């Protein structure tokens, strides 16, 4: 009786051991396949370029309330040859020293094919946006000095597309510095009631799983 029980226990133990190593082997194979697919596809994050910005308004009302109206032209390129990009939800806004100075403007959802370029020209508005006393004072000093560094930022989500497969959501953060000069130092071009600045400069882009 003991021999039968011991033999049955040994067979069960052997089955569990084989099952365990089978799962480990399968997981390793899947990871290796994913790794080689990743190497073959060589995915790269999209490239963003701030082409220009037209400042129609950038003034204070009261002491710490900023009103701004800026139109920007932003282009993005998908550098991948085998991977498409779905832009799911992108909000663009202007900030000064890490404080948001306009409301977020939602960019249209879009699909970007291999090597495709997409161009957006949204308006960024902020009516009587409260600024902290420190930032309001600093911005006033910059305006009086005739030079302001504004950051155009894009936050949102994207998905990768390979064939019929679509990935999960990835977080994307874009930061485009826009150095603007006013008064005697102005390097912009008069454009109706506003001043247009040509930049054509690259932006920093971060993409990470959400």
Beta-strand fraction estimate: over 45%
Helix and strand run: HEEEEEEEEHEEEEEE
Mean pLDDT: 87
Helical amount among residues, as a percent range? 25-40%
- Flag low-confidence runs: none
Over all CA atoms, what is the radius of gyration?
27 Å
DSSP strand tally? 14
Q: What is the terminal-to-terminal distance? A: 58 Å
Biggest sheet layout: 8 strands, antiparallel
Shape: elongated
Task: Describe the protein in words.
The protein has 210 residues and is α+β, with helices and mostly antiparallel strands. The chain is built from 2 helices and 14 strands. The strands form 2 sheets. Strands 3, 4, 5, 6, 9, 10, 11 and 14 form an 8-stranded antiparallel sheet that branches. Strands 1, 2, 7, 8, 12 and 13 form a 6-stranded antiparallel sheet that branches. The termini are far apart. The model has no long low-confidence stretch (mean pLDDT 87).
Features:
alpha+beta, six-stranded antiparallel β-sheet
Short description:
This protein is α+β, with helices and mostly antiparallel strands. The chain is built from two helices and 14 strands, in the order αββββββββαββββββ.
Can you lay out the helices and strands and say which pair or pack?
Layout: H1 2-41, E1 47-61, E2 65-77, E3 84-96, E4 99-100, E5 105-107, E6 110-112, E7 117-120, E8 123-130, H2 133-145, E9 147-162, E10 165-166, E11 170-181, E12 189-191, E13 194-202, E14 204-209
Antiparallel strand pairs: 1-2, 1-13, 2-7, 2-8, 3-4, 3-5, 3-6, 3-9, 9-10, 9-11, 11-14, 12-13
């Amino acid at each position: 009786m003991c021999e039968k029980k011991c033999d049955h226990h040994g067979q069960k133990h052997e089955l569990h051991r084989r099952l365990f190593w089978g799962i480990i082997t399968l997981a390793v194979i899947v990871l290796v396949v994913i790794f080689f697919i990743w190497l073959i596809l060589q995915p790269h994050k999209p490239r963003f370029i701030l082409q220009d910005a037209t400042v129609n308004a950038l003034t204070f009302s009261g002491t710490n309330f900023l009103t701004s109206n800026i139109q920007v032209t932003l282009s993005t390129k998908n550098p991948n040859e085998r991977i498409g990009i779905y832009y799911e939800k992108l909000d663009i806004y202007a900030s000064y020293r890490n404080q948001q100075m306009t409301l977020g403007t939602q960019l249209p959802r879009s699909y970007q094919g291999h090597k495709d370029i997409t161009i957006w020209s949204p308006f960024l508005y902020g009516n009587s946006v409260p600024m902290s006393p420190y930032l309001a004072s600093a911005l006033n000093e910059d305006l009086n000095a005739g030079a302001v560094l504004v950051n155009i930022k894009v936050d949102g989500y994207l998905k990768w597309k390979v064939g019929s497969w679509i990935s999960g959501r990835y977080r994307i953060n874009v930061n485009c510095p826009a150095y603007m000069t006013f008064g005697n130092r102005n390097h912009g071009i008069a454009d109706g009631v506003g001043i247009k600045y040509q930049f054509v400069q690259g932006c920093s882009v971060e993409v990470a799983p959400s």
